[in-house]
Amino acid sequence: MARPEVWLPILLFASWANGRTIPSKGQEFQQAQDTGFTEPLIRDLHVGELNFLHTTDTHGWLGSHLTQPNYDADWGDFVSFASRFRENRVGTAGDLVLVDTGDKHDGNGLSDATVPNGLESTKVFNEQDYDLLTLGNHELYTEENTVLEYCSTANSEKFKDAYVSSNVEFITKEGNPVPFGSKYRFFKTKNHNFRILALSFMFNFQRTNPRAKVTPALEALKQDWFQDVISKYPAESVDVLVVFGHMPITDPENREINQVHRHLRKIYPKTIIQYFGGHSHIRDFAVFDKQSTGLQSGRFSETVGFLSIANVKSSEPSFSRQYLDFSKKSFAYHSRVSQSNLVTEKGSKISNHLSKLREDLSLNEVVGYVPDTYYMDTKPLQSKHNIYHLLASEVLPRLRSQHTDDTKSRFIIINTGAIRYDLYKGNFTKDSEYIVSPFPNDWNYIEVPLSLAEGVADYLNKGPVLLRSLAPPSALRHTLRHTRPKSCPFIHDPERSKGYTTLDDGGCEGDDVPHNTEIYYDIPNVVQSVELKPGIQDTAHLVFYSFIQRDVVRALNALNEQKAIVRHHYSEKDCRQYGGHATKDLLKEWIRDL
Ligand SMILES: *[C@@H]1O[C@H](CO)[C@@H](O)[C@H](O)[C@H]1NC(C)=O
Ligand SMILES: [Zn+2]
Ligand SMILES: [Zn+2]
């Protein structure tokens, strides 16, 4: 199938002479090793008539990535950037719209060390002057989060127009559903007077707390309020339909966004429809048709997504996208100021406040020193630099039961979702704890024939993605990787920092910084630590997180059926409390004892 033509940034390889180029104004070039061809240190973005800056899935990462120079900007720098960029790059020749698509909690001490979670970080986040913002599923797990989000943001003076949610309702104390913000927003841009109609959809998330309700997007589009919107703003009175929300841009499984698009196209057959998505934590850009594309801008304040549309009023608009590293270098470069001139007064205030907040929440408190870096999925599982390998070989063996002895062979199974981020070399602080492994867990165990116990982890990993919801979000990336047939040229250049080489519908040059390509390995659902006792033994202790108990029991019965080992149907009644410290505490103890 031919892909519609999309205008995308074209790299300028200035001169091939001697393999060296003369940097043009405002551009730095560096020679890539071996290949003899040159590539800029930062690829330029293409400002158009209508421009967007997009963030998503920030998960409390407002204080920058202290252990990763690629992402050394904090929220104050981002606020400075938006204002410098508007001033120096967009000016009056274009318009700039700031968008966020939710998930602002769960991932970093700045949001998670307060009660309720997000109490302070929400105020900091809201310092950015978003034109369009909404919520993610992480604003809907607990009641206190939902109430905080509604009161402090959706219903706030500052954002009461900008906050849009077309398919989520807040349930008041009295039990009445009210829209979570506005159902839609119509506004005109400042310089070109583009008429923008914005809608916002959350993916079909049905595990909300009782104070919220999500209506599937397609259902919401059939409700009366939307019929009213259509008659008030028919196609001829809208220049650009912006559909932003907490929904993946590429969704091979449910194709929810594609269904929304099909529906909207019937009503707005020729209108530009620009999507902004989130939730799957990736950089992504998809072309839906000649007048429609979608952008998704990563996770954890590692990325600011940029999208521009040129020829907005023509029948052939052109789209351009770029993923900016969340760094001072990128921010300064794209706003055409030196790094020392990037920070505005407001930005500097926010950064200072963040430092103080880190102090107040004791996030810098040092637990111990990590001698090496351990990765979730950029080193293979068998590598000694893989965090699951570390857990299985060094950390989990420290588990001691309060209820049984350790004379039996032991299999300890954990789901890989227990880890949320890479563990970096250097000081392990209270903040690192929130970042890497915040989840408490209880251990249960069951005594079973060794020949059954040894098959459980494999079974759970081969099974039909039964623990999907427990897998870390980055596992979604792997599902997606197989949906696009081609791959990007591998950049091997040790001079460059490791990072994203994103393949999307626009090609391979979407990342503003051409990185030394990072390879991602598949992570299984579960990993296990195995301790076999010498001598012949019939049974072993199978130890696992209490919340995967049902899956473990199911696996045991399935294996027993295959192998016919015992005459017994396992049930949850066979499982007992094991006791012992949670994985996160075992990890801390390991670090402390180093
Ligand atoms: C690491 O912690 C020690 C104290 O525990 C401190 O002296 C040192 O400055 C810290 N290093 C960094 C890079 O923060
Ligand atoms: Zn998220
Ligand atoms: Zn999400």
UniProtKB/TrEMBL annotation:
Domain Calcineurin-like phosphoesterase: 51-282
Pfam short name (any one): Metallophos
Signal peptide: 1-19
Highest taxon, organism lineage: Eukaryota
GO MF annotation terms: hydrolase activity
GO process terms (BP): nucleotide catabolic process
Domain Putative 5'-nucleotidase C-terminal per the UniProt entry, residue ranges: 373-553
UniProt keyword annotations, A-Z: Signal
GO CC, any one term: cytosol
Protein name: KLTH0D17270p
Species, as recorded: Lachancea thermotolerans (strain ATCC 56472 / CBS 6340 / NRRL Y-8284) (Yeast)
Species lineage: Eukaryota, Fungi, Dikarya, Ascomycota, Saccharomycotina
